[in-house]
Amino acid sequence: MQVPMGILFQPLYITTITFLIFLSLIFVPVSAVDPFTESLLSLKSEILDHSNSLSDWILSSDSVVNSPTEKIFACSWTGVKCNENSSLIIGLDLSVKNLGGVFSEGQFSPFSDLLDLNLSHNSFSEKLPAGIFNLTKLKSLDISRNNFSGHFPSGISNLVNLVILDVFSNSFSGPLPKDVSQIESLKVLNFAGSYFSGSIPSEFGSFKNLDFIHLAGNSLSGKIPSELGMLKTVTHMEIGYNSYEGSIPWELGNMSKLQYLDIAGANLSGSIPKELSNLTNLESLFLFRNQLNGKIPFEFGKISSLSSLDLSDNLLSGSIPESFSELKNLKLLSVMYNDLSGTIPKGIAKLPLLDTLLIWDNFFSGSLPKDLGKYSKLKYLDVSTNYFVGNIPPDICSNGVLLKLILFSNNFSGGVSPSLSNCSSLVRIRIEDNSFSGDISLNFGNFPDLSYVDMSRNRFGGGIPANIALVSKLQYFNVSNNPNLGGIIPEKALSLSLQNFSATNCSISGDFPPFGPCKSLLVLELSMNNVSGIIPQSIGNCQSLVSIDLANNNLSGHIPVEFASLPSISVVDLSHNGFNGPIPAKFGSSSSLKLLNVSFNNLSGSIPLEKSFKVMDGSAFWGNPNLCGEPLRPCRHGPNGLELGSRRTQKLAWVLITCGVVVVAITAAVFGVLHFRRGGKGKWKMVSFSGLPRFTANDVLRSFNSVEEAKDLVPPLVAADCKAVLPTGITVLVKKIEWRPEGMNSMLDLIARMGSARQKNLTRLLGCCYNKQMAYLLYDYLPNGNLAERIRTKRDWATKYKIIVGIARGLCFLHHNCYPAIPHGDLKANNIVFDENMEPHLTEFGVKFLNQLNNGPVQARVGNETGEIDRAIKEELYTDIYNFGEVILEILTNGKLSNAATNIQNTSKEVLLREVLYENDVAPSNSVQEEIKLVLEVASLCTRSRSSDRPSMEEALKLLSGLKKQG
């Protein structure tokens, strides 16, 4: 039977169709999808999606089959905006999605109808693809807050419809693109926060519709082009935080619609052009941190719209113009850090909107306007470091919103204004270093948010108010150096959330009140008073206590063992009291204790044997006749069972001493003859400081070169710095110094002061072996390397903060606890070394000054009564402070940024902070950000161009310590 061919091939046909349908289902996501969706999928494959923000950028067979073929499938995806019928993609918003990676050149080419492209707040890097400039319909292009680098690509002028161009906070370098000025539709131009260099193109003055221009925080230089004055439509201009040359062009006064002008931190010089007063719409003017000089233009009083005026940190002189009394919209007036003088215009007090007045560190005199605070809601007042006299204005807080009252370092007098007791808004009161008198008549119970009070160095009386215990948030309280204050320590005063309680030299009497919880207390200073009785055992509650100074009081009894058990205690001064009994042995096991001063008490027994006590200076234990042990006399019995110090022993000692003197005299005579015969040339001598056994010069020299006897005139070491092991096994770092015989005495004086400098963040100078040609300085050898070797090691913020504060403490000790001060002279990462606990120690301090003494005239001795050397020391101290700021920035950026002057003074704070947060892996929302920001501010203050504007190391340390103390 013959089978028809159609029937024969039917099964094959069915199978083929089925297979083709199966294939079509498999490949439908690729073959049936529109080209725009394909391009977006290609884009997704190219970038890094760290947070899976584009998780819905996927295809499924069902969704493609069911979607209308004339519509773009991707229109429903995150960040994709289409027109009404979903036939065109008109917007792409990938902002704040934690994306990264590098774009290829043609990645955006298919989106020719795109009106808005937003890639901001991500981590895209390398070059910006120039193909973006082919999207000629773009109205908004935002690539801000990424890490695009290299030169900005050419072709931006192709975007003829562009209205907004935001390039803020990237890493672009090279010149600003001139051709952007050809885009007539442009209204917003933001090139801030990169590394653009060169001058601002004069072509930037040709924009026709520009409203906003921001070029701050780059590396721009040259003169500010006068052509910018032709920008008649601009309302907001920020071009500061660069390093320009010359002055502010007077032509900027022609920008008739300008409301906001910021040229701060821009290295500008010359006077402020009076033509800026023509900017009658101006609301904010920021010219701070420049080198501007001359007077503040009187004509500024015509800018009636002015709300914020900051001219601080310049070289301005003269007075605040009387015309400022006409600025009825003024809220902020800051002229701090200038050379201004005269009195404050009375009309300033009548400005109805004034809430911030910052005029500190000038030469103002007279009294504050008596109506200050009466007519305005004043929040921040800082007039410190001037020459003001008179009383605190009575209505300073009449509107009840004053937060900070800062009046320190003036000549104010009288009592504290009674109205302040009703000022419940106060957070900070600083009136130290004045001539205030009378009682401290503040009702502390009315200050729910008060955290900081400093009334030290005044003439207050009447004691510390008992109601201080009612301030629940008080962290810092200082009334030191009010000699007639009197009274007692209020009960519960030490039970607050206080971190610092200072009342030194206040004639306080009575017994210690019991310590309450005191979990926050870090520093307690009550020296030079008349406090009596015993230290309560409840001091053991103060588990955070770091430093306590109770010297020069009438305290008695035993030192509580609970005191010795405090886990963080570092500095303890109990000198000049009446303590008796032994030093608690538990002090010896304290890992944190660095200084214990118990001199001039009635203590007995032995000093603990631990290493921390052996390195303390003997003066810390003087004046206790019954105390023994290193570093005092040994605690042991003499020969024949006689106790050292008994009468028989004393007689025997006198006999031995007499014999010894005779022997020494004979020996000296013999050596004197030999020395005379040899001309006294090259004889080695040895000076040992605390912590080094009494080695002879030959002991030390033999350890250098392992010979039996060192030759008098042959230097045993060739290298300037090397390691040596002394006879008892002590490892030291040896530094060679060569000198001229005529300068030797001056240099020995300084070496003696260097050897007496003992602080936990200083490398100890243990001794000096010398002759008339050279000296070998012997330092503690610290094995854990220096900061330069470890600068790129990733550390957490707490460790970095500890290193910075440690460096500050060492430097502060050299500057403020040594007399005369010892400049470090060469503070840098190489000269900061680490001990076994990774605690930083400064080394090489004073060495540069030693060399200056050797190279300079002989009459330039330390302590020269002419004062010439004092000026030299002062300049060196300023240099130390500058170098400290440099080191801070190196630590914060893991060594990537070292030139603090350029990076801090010429970069916007926001850009620099972002870079530092990135280097420290700190998210912008992290609470640590505020601490890092404050440390950056300290670095900024320390690297000010004018040395006299820099804070002292004492002030810098106080600011740094305040981070942890004040939160």
TrEMBL record:
Keywords: Glycoprotein, Leucine-rich repeat, Membrane, Repeat, Signal, Transmembrane, Transmembrane helix. InterPro entries: Kinase-like_dom_sf, Leu-rich_rpt, LRR_dom_sf, Plant_LRR-RLKs, Prot_kinase_dom, Ser-Thr/Tyr_kinase_cat_dom, Ser/Thr_kinase_AS. It is found in: Membrane. One of its GO terms (molecular function) is protein kinase activity. One of its GO terms (biological process) is post-embryonic development. Its main location: membrane. GO terms for cellular component: membrane. It is a single-pass type I membrane protein. PANTHER family: LRR RECEPTOR-LIKE SERINE/THREONINE-PROTEIN KINASE-RELATED, PROTEIN KINASE DOMAIN-CONTAINING PROTEIN. Belongs to the RLP family. This is Uncharacterized protein LOC107785494. It comes from Nicotiana tabacum.
